[in-house]
Amino acid sequence: MPEIQIRTDGPYLLDASGLQLSDANGNAVALPEGSKVALCRCGQSENKPFCDGGHKAAGFKHGPAVS
């Protein structure tokens, strides 16, 4: 079953096994090797929708709690 883990001050970690990721136009987005990917949530990645670590340089801070 697919799972998304919210990381403190970091990306969303997605267990993408069995999932197809699509862009806004419905085109398939190739997933990196393996079944787990990190999705950007800070907006600083040069490789959106995937995280490239840009949140560290940007000082992105956001806890994992969802209310």
Description:
This protein is mainly beta. It has one helix at 54-58; strands spanning 3-6, 12-15, 21-22, 28-29, 36-39. It has a single domain, classed as Ribosomal Protein L9, domain 1 (3-Layer(aba) Sandwich). It has one helix and five strands, in the order βββββα. The chain starts with a strand and ends in a 9-residue tail after the last helix.
Give the second-level CATH assignment, the architecture: 3-Layer(aba) Sandwich
Please provide the count of β strands. 5
Q: What distance lies between the first and last C-alpha atoms, to the nearest angstrom?
A: 23 Å
Strand order of the largest sheet: 1-2-5
Total discrete domains: 1
Structural class: mainly beta
What's the level 1 CATH class? Alpha Beta
Q: What characteristic shape results from the CA principal axes?
A: globular
Radius of gyration: 12 Å
Taking the sheet with the most strands, its summary is: 3 strands, antiparallel
Helix/strand order? EEEEEH
Q: Under CATH, the topology is which?
A: Ribosomal Protein L9, domain 1
Low-confidence blocks of residues? none
Can you summarize this structure?
The chain has one helix spanning 54-58, and strands at 3-6, 12-15, 21-22, 28-29, 36-39. The protein is mainly β and 67 residues long.
SSE layout:
Layout: E1 3-6, E2 12-15, E3 21-22, E4 28-29, E5 36-39, H1 54-58
Antiparallel strand pairs: 1-2, 2-5, 3-4
Task: Considering the chains and any ligands shown, give keywords for the structure.
single chain, 67 residues, mainly beta, Ribosomal Protein L9, domain 1, three-stranded antiparallel β-sheet, two-stranded antiparallel sheet, 1 helix, 5 strands, globular
